[in-house]
Amino acid sequence: MTAALVGAFTAAVDASTLGASVLSSAGGAAEILATRHAYVTFALLLCIGLYMMIANPNLVKKIIGLNLFQTAIFLLFIASAYVDGGAIPIVPSGGPEGGLYVSPLPHVLVLTAIVVGVSLTAVALALCIRIYDEYGTLRTDTLRELLRDEGSIPAREPVETPGDDGAPAAGGAPGASDAGGETDD
């Protein structure tokens, strides 16, 4: 493998083949992307779904992001189970037993995961309806503030300030503040 890397590096450095190697590597990348489009779609769906779950403050949009993330995982399972030239794994009696077959296990796992995903989505949407009826909003930052106001989650601790004599209050360093992350998540 190292010999192949050294050979590729020397070919790329050679001035006469520099343009050809760049074009062939770009063509190779385009060919890989064209033949592996399911994996590219998987990566895009996974990133979009993860971003939606993290960045959106709206609970319904978080559920949509979760569904995109689940769909990406389903696509990965199905794409990885693909066998070029494979047949269904049903062997007729008296027929030839050799051959290239596709494993049905990833398909069964995806089918089960779809059922679980639909159930999870239904429960999450039912909870969103209940939260909206109770609090009138589906934004997580507003819900957090409302829950702090009613006492369901503890309020933020005030930032410690130095005492009157210049010594830090409660054993902290002078001028230190409690600007860390939230612990009520």
How would you sum up this structure in a few lines?
By secondary structure, the chain is mainly α. It is built from six helices and no strands.
Task: Give a quick set of tags describing it.
elongated, mainly alpha, 185 residues, single chain
Show the helix and strand layout.
Elements: H1 2-13, H2 18-35, H3 37-55, H4 59-80, H5 105-135, H6 140-150
- Number of contiguous helices: 6
One letter per element, helices H and strands E, the order comes to HHHHHH
Strand content: under 5%
Radius of gyration: 28 Å
Oligomerization state: single chain
How far from one another are the termini?
A: 47 Å
Helix % is 55-70%
Alpha-beta classification: mainly alpha
Average pLDDT, rounded to a whole number, is 77
What does this structure look like?
The protein has 185 residues and is an all-alpha fold. Helices cover 61% and strands 0% of the residues. The protein contains 6 helices and no strands. The protein has helices at residues 2-13, 18-35, 37-55, 59-80, 105-135, 140-150. The longest helix has 31 residues, at 105-135. Mean pLDDT is 77; it is low at 1-23 and 175-185.
